[in-house]
Each structure stands twice: as C-alpha cells, then as structure tokens.
Amino acid sequence: QLGMLAEGPLRSTSGNNYPLIVYYLGVSEEGLGNRQRAIEYYKEMLGYWGGADIQIKEIVDAKSRLAKLTG
User: Fold this and answer.
1) Distance CA 59, CA 71 (A)
2) Number of C-alpha atoms within 13 angstroms, CB side, residue 48?
3) Is the confidence at residue 5, as pLDDT, over 70?
4) Cα–Cα distance, 41 to 59 (Å, whole number)
5) 53 near 24, Cβ under 8 Å?
6) pLDDT tens for residues 15-43?
7) DSSP string, the chain
8) CA gap 30, 26 in Å, rounded
9) 54 phi-psi bin (left φ>0, alpha ψ -120 to 50, beta other)
10) By CB count within 10 A, which of 20, 42, 53, 60 is most buried?
C-alpha cells in the first residue's frame, strides 16, 4: 500500500519523503472517517519532523489536525 503512494513526484530511494507520505496517509484516513488510524499517522509523521526548526505547512497542519482529533 505504501509503495503505491510512493510513486510519482514523491518517489524517492532515500526515504526522506517517508514522513510526508505518512502525513498524506493521515489526511486520507481522516477523510475516510478512520479517526484512530489518522491519529496514528499524524503522530508517526510528527515523530520524524515534529521538532524541526523549520515549520513547513505539513508539520503545522499535522499538529493542528492531531489536536482536533485528540482534543
């Protein structure tokens, strides 16, 4: 499943895009109504990038979505 999502512009052999792919999995699961799965994906993504010095839009969004789902 993850392999299919890693095709196209996000395709990478370095693994640097993995947290971004996990973020989009969270967005997808949330859109499908799978709240718990979305929470797990957002937490995983933030585990990689949550402490980054640069706050890219996906990090800010993942934190916001997670807060709404767990708040």
Assistant:
1) 18
2) 17
3) no
4) 12
5) no
6) 678 899 899 999 999 999 999 999 999 99
7) -HHHHTSGGG--SSSTTHHHHHHHHHHHHHHTT-HHHHHHHHHHHHHHHTT-SS--HHHHHHHHHHHHHH-
8) 6
9) beta
10) 42
Token match 């767990």: residue? Answer: 70
Tokens representing 20 are 């971004």
Pair of tokens at residue 8: 């196209």
Structure tokens, 58? 């996906």
> Tokens 């699961």 label which residue?
29
Q: Most distant CA pair in the chain: distance in Å?
A: 36
- Give Cα 38 to chain centroid, integer Å: 8
Please report where in the chains the tokens 């949330």 appear, as a residue: 30
